[in-house]
Input
Amino acid sequence: MTPGGEQLCYSDAYLRSVGARVASVGTDAATMVVLDRTVFYPGGGGQPSDRGLILRTADARSWTVRAARKVDGEIVHELEPDGSGPPAVGDIVQVDLDWARRHALMRTHTALHALCGVVWRDHGAFVTGGNMEPGSGRMDFEFERMSGDLVDSIEAAVNLELAAERDVRVAVLPRAEAFAIPDLIRTKVNLLPEGIEQIRTVEIVGLDLQADGGTHVANTREVGGIRVLGYESKGRINKRIRIELVDPA
Ligand SMILES: [Zn+2]
Output
């Protein structure tokens, strides 16, 4: 399915550490390491890549991973330069996420899907883009008019949905089956490249279903709540809503 290493973030978002073997080491602007398995998310869909550590078992040496990305289907770990040598191919290591950051991103990502779900259900507005940092994010919608009262009502509706403790489920479907789901069309699943035969979906049960590659919490109770920080116009149709997380009580 994927070349090279196992990419565990897509099947278990809660795995924060795994033992692995160094499969290749390259140098670009920084040292780039591929492992035979990893818990790192390489970034994409508005979710930034993880950060963390690679720890060599033999001598407890560690390297900071400052970013990750996908190159030719492989997850590549970019090391912070530290003036000493890189790990070697074949080294046995442990790879650890900066879990506080990743978990905040999971909560933020799920909160943004809840926002999409509410805006679609209550206003029929398409999403045109989005981005996030740990604990805050923004989404752009095709929304002709927006007002303070409207965003207040959206915020309240999203918080109700999060408090409803909805499960979040990940599935991988054959392309034809995914296309048969009417809700997926609004997230422009039809723009996915022809070659992709399997489509990963993320569902907030009873609220939202999207084609998505990101990492999410398992239940909306883990998000807590959201606060709308503001909204702005990005052209005649596009409106941007900015949110931040409110920790669970
Ligand atoms: Zn998403």
In short: The CA atoms of residues 17 and 96 lie 4 Å apart. Residues 45, 109, 113, 212, 214 surround zinc ion (CB under 6 Å). The helical segments are 99-123, 148-163, 175-179, 182-185. The longest helix spans residues 99-123.
